[in-house]
Amino acid sequence: MTQPTAFAGLRRDAEALAAPLPPLLADAEHLAASVMTGAHGRRRVGQGDEFWQYRPSHAGDEARMVDWRRSARSEDALFVREKEWQAAQSVMLWLDMGQSMQFSSHKDIPSKAAEARRLALALSVLLIRGGERVGLTNLGMPPRAGQVQLMRLTTAFATETDAADYAIPDLKAAPLRSRAVFISDFMGPFEPVEQAVTRAADRGISGAILQVLDPQEEAFPFDGRTIFESMGGSLRHETLKAGDLRDRYLDRLSERKDALRGLARSIGWQFHTHHTGTAASAALLWLYTALERGH
Amino acid sequence: MWTIGPVGFTAPWLLLGLVLLPILWLLLRAVPPAPIRRMFPGVALLLGLTDDETQTDRTPWWLLLLRTIAIAAAIIGFAGPVLNPKVETAGDGRLLVLIDGGWPEAQDWARRMDRVEALLNEAGQAGRETALVSLTDLPADGALVFQTADAIASQLPGVLPQAWLADEAEILPWLEGLDGAFDTFWLSDGLGHDWRDPALAALRDRGSVTVFESPRPVVGIKPASFVDGNIEIEAVRSRTASDAVIGVMAHGLDPNGTPRQLARLDIEMAAGEASTSGTLALPAELRNRVTRFEIEGVRSAGAVSLTDDSLRRREVAILSAREEREGLQLLSPTHYLEQALVDTADLIDGAIEDIVLANPDVIILADIVTLAGGETEALAEWISKGGLLLRFAGSRLAASDYGRDEEDVLMPVRLRAGGRTVGGAMSWGEPKALRQFGPESPFFGLAVPQDVTVSSQVMAQPDPTLAERTIASLADGTPLVTRKRIDQGQVVLFHVTANADWSTLPLSVLFVQMLERLAVSTQSSALTAEDLEGTTWSLDQTLTGFGEIVDAGTLPGVPGERLAEEAPGPDLPPGLYSGENRRIALNVLDREASLTPAVWPADIAVEGFAVQEETPLAGIALSLALIALMVDIIAALALSGRLTGATAAALIALLLAAPQPAEAQEGQDIEKLLAATSEVRLAYVITGDARLDETSEAGLRGLSDVLFRRTSIEPNAPVAVDLEQDELSVFPFLYWPVTETQPRPSSDAYAKLNRYLRTGGMILFDTRDASTSGFSTATPNGRRLQQLALPLDIPPLEPIPSDHVLTRTFYLLQDFPGRFVSRDVWVEAAPEDAERVEGMPFRNLNDNVTPVVIGGNDWAAAWAVDTRGAPMFPVGRGFAGERQREIAYRFGVNLIMHVLTGNYKSDQVHVPALLDRLGQ
């Protein structure tokens, strides 16, 4: 093959690859715009720009640290002006890339994967705007700040998939005492999730668990003789009367939710269930505040 | 055919398929509904769950039953079930096929012949000897000839229905004369006849009798009669069980001489009515051209009624010398003529020239002697083309020298001077009676009343031709009525007056009869034998049994009495008979005719109706199968979980497709009408262009405000008018902006618009193109205006003249600007003769409101104000523009004033003149 043709092919592939990126990012930014970011203070004294408090000076304070304007108003004491500690923190995202996330019950409802990616990227946008560092555990991508990291995340979200039906969370490259967000439908086996979360808690990582579910998964509106197959085709279950299974399925689903909620509570994490087809901004807001609340 | 109880099957072998049903049951039972494959991530949670019920892997029993029923119904349906099947029984021995053979059978002749053919086939297969006899065409020697069925079948095409009914006097002797045993298959015409029962008895003596009757009723129409200026047509039918509509068509020649349908009348017969008459109002011209009435879609002689001269009203012109003097009617020379003719002829008045142009049938000159120069030639020419000139004598004729020395072209004989008077006070003898009419006379056969006497008359000069020209004479032989033929026409002279001065003839019935014989008048009632006694008629056109009219060929003449009295028969076929001056139609049904259905004894098998009772059930069975399959579809969907909400909703929507209520619309209409009538409202036509409609509304609102402020007209908010639906008559004024996209109103809407324009409404057409086109087709709006206005009843138009009343109804105006300034505003043209009267500043123009004003100045935009009362569109520039807007408003005010007050201002200009006159 001649070189121009190869080049053209490369170019074409690259364009096809890049095609979903701007919409995904734009979508995420659009979603992120619905959350007003404030200064991301640590609610304690430290390095930063924002005023935190005046405190009386004590021995050891340098003279240049004294706020003379405040001190002049008092009788005899000298005050020191303290700033709020504003430090970037690391947030590690784990996004379920498994096949089960590809499910969408209706053409108007986005798939769980699309919804999860949008939410994750929107959260990333918010965090990076707030000066935090964001990483992706799926790829072992270490937390970094800045627009470049956002682009890397976008690329990763748009391209990365997992062939397995149900992905297992991992926490590669998660720094100690950082924050973590797990986004998945948590339909797969529960033990790996439990192990991963417990291990994370052991490493001092706090965070949030977001379960993304399709409305059909909550309703189970099936009847008649049905063969259910998982998205990847690895699992199948045949029933002659699907309607009879509804109650038992719903029981199991709420059991799973309770287990996740209990797990989260036991280690001080947050848990929330989001349904595709409902407003994503609510879930984003919850995610954002859940990360705020953690400290 | 194989029968179980009342049900027979046309294809009984198919019923063997029912054996397969149990196998089907087992098969269906073994095959459960196919599962649906679904992608579902939650399957991980489902693993390990088992079904409670295990029997659903088989088809449920009710679904099985449903499917079995469907299949069974289909099999039975295709096997051709028939309820009460017709079981044909073949007889043996000789068979007589008897056909009534009259016109009532013509209307379904083909079907009858098919039946006969089928019968002959059967008889042929059974080897039966058959004979075929039509009662209207009995075998000449009276004996029945039985032949093989094939031979009879070959004669079948030659058997045709006759245009008359069988004659009792011939049938019964013939039936009596039959011998031997045979079965009879009788194709009856369905009508009751007197000879029916004796004939049936005679036939039953010979063997079994089967009757075939058509279930269709026999219909016919009676001769049309002339009642109160309308044609009355009566339709009769033999069966009265149901309502029916009988369409009667009037056929005749159109002015070009082409035969065509001239009119149509629907006669509605309610159940139980055997005869109903309908009236048809036709203009005299059209009525005179009608040659026959025919029932639509029925081929039989009874469904055709030929019209003769009785329906034709002759046009008679009566001219007399004297002007009628009030109070002396009985002395008027034409009084008795008018009385004799007024019921039966159309009388016309006028001068001779005009009358001749109108080409009447008869011109009567009562004692008129002198004719102007041209009139004689005109009359002579008219006579030679077939006119009848009827003259009466009188004192003037007796006193004049007219036609003394040589025969006048308009007189049948030469007259002797003076006339004579008999039986008077100063003369000898008795008043003379009339002599019986001779056989050469057209009056031959009329009875001469003895009280008819003649006291005065004019006398004919003896001439060689006198004898042959005399058609009536007095007892002493002096001519009373003479006649001369001129080419196709004739001149007839009554030697007495047309009133009772000279004779009592005009007082007698004979006078009317004589006029009838002369074809001066035509009688609308039925002719009696007495009327026609002594006349001979020849058949011109004859009716076939199928109701077709064919030329009769040459047949011997028929005496008039038979025409009046006898029913049609072989030697008196129905048709159109012509005599000397007129034609008489002999129709199959006379005026007293009625059609009664035949009544058969209960033990006679009557075929024809049995066909009705034989009900095929295949359709019902197949429908049942289809319905069962439909239910099965729904049930199967429901069972397999495929019946989702959307599918169910669609099914229910299909079932419950209900019509929309239309009452709301009506209520709105009434409210709109009330609102429009309780106050003055300006209205605009909805064009469909929302923006334009909005402008129109705002414009009329602005104009209404101005009217309210400045004048005593206080209109309410303007109304949008939909030409298709709204009532227009409540609006005095319509503003109609023209767009190129506007759809053309329907013809109903145009009818409404035309009514609106004729009854004083006004439409302001606005092309909104500054009249650049001059209303030609140069602009799209101009073209559209032409298309829109084409069907409108618009008078001739002219550009608005400077003295038009619109220029002064409220303001004095010479320009009519809107957003554009164009002088091209068109109104109804002034009459040609409008002239300016001395001393008047204006002409006295139309006495009415101009129905349309057409312009292109976009007035609505100039008038338009928004809800705050501020102008919506700029007009012109600066102060000049505001001035233009003001003038536009003034034009609007003038226009509405003109609409509401008409030509009031026109009248106002006369006030000085009126005051002037009053002062004098």
Task: Describe the protein.
The complex is a heterodimer of chains A (295) and B (920). With 295 residues, chain A is of the alpha/beta class. Chain A has 9 helices and 10 strands. Chain A has helices at residues 3-18, 21-32, 68-73, 112-129, 147-159, 190-202, 215-219, 242-267, 280-293; strands at residues 51-56, 79-83, 90-95, 133-136, 141-144, 179-184, 206-213, 226-229, 236-239, 270-275. In chain A, a hairpin with a 4-residue loop joins strand 4 and strand 5 (141-144). Chain A is elongated, with a radius of gyration of 24 Å. Chain B contains 27 helices and 42 strands. Chain B has a 7-stranded mixed sheet, with helices on both faces. A 6-stranded mixed sheet of chain B has the order 7-6-5-8-9-34. In chain B, helix 6 (168-176) runs parallel beside helix 7 (196-206). Chains A and B meet through strand 8, strand 9 and helix 8 of A and strand 3 and helix 2 of B.
Question: How is this fold's topology laid out?
Answer:
The complex is a heterodimer of chains A (about 300) and B (about 900).
Chain A: H1 3-18, H2 21-32, E1 51-56, H3 68-73, E2 79-83, E3 90-95, H4 112-129, E4 133-136, E5 141-144, H5 147-159, E6 179-184, H6 190-202, E7 206-213, H7 215-219, E8 226-229, E9 236-239, H8 242-267, E10 270-275, H9 280-293
Parallel strand pairs in A: 3-4, 3-6, 6-7, 7-10
Antiparallel strand pairs in A: 1-2, 4-5, 8-9
Helix pairs in contact in A: 2-4, 4-5, 4-9, 6-8
Chain B: E1 2-4, E2 7-9, H1 20-30, E3 36-39, H2 43-46, H3 61-78, E4 81-83, E5 95-99, H4 109-126, E6 129-134, E7 147-148, H5 149-155, H6 168-176, E8 183-187, H7 196-206, E9 209-212, E10 219-221, E11 225-227, E12 230-237, E13 244-253, E14 259-269, E15 275-280, H8 284-289, E16 290-295, E17 304-306, E18 314-320, H9 335-341, E19 345-348, H10 352-358, E20 362-366, H11 373-384, E21 388-392, H12 395-399, E22 420-421, E23 432-433, E24 453-454, E25 456-457, H13 466-469, E26 470-473, E27 479-486, E28 489-494, H14 509-517, H15 529-532, E29 536-543, E30 549-551, E31 558-559, H16 560-565, E32 575-578, E33 583-586, E34 605-607, H17 610-613, E35 615-616, H18 618-639, H19 645-655, H20 663-678, E36 681-685, H21 690-710, E37 716-721, E38 733-737, H22 747-758, E39 762-766, H23 780-789, E40 797-799, E41 826-828, E42 852-855, H24 859-863, H25 878-901, H26 904-908, H27 911-919
Parallel strand pairs in B: 5-6, 5-8, 8-9, 9-34, 18-19, 18-20, 20-21, 21-28, 36-37, 36-38, 38-39, 39-42
Antiparallel strand pairs in B: 1-2, 2-4, 4-35, 6-7, 10-12, 11-12, 12-15, 13-14, 13-16, 16-17, 22-25, 23-24, 26-27, 27-28, 29-30, 29-31, 29-32, 32-33, 40-41
Helix pairs in contact in B: 1-3, 3-18, 4-5, 6-7
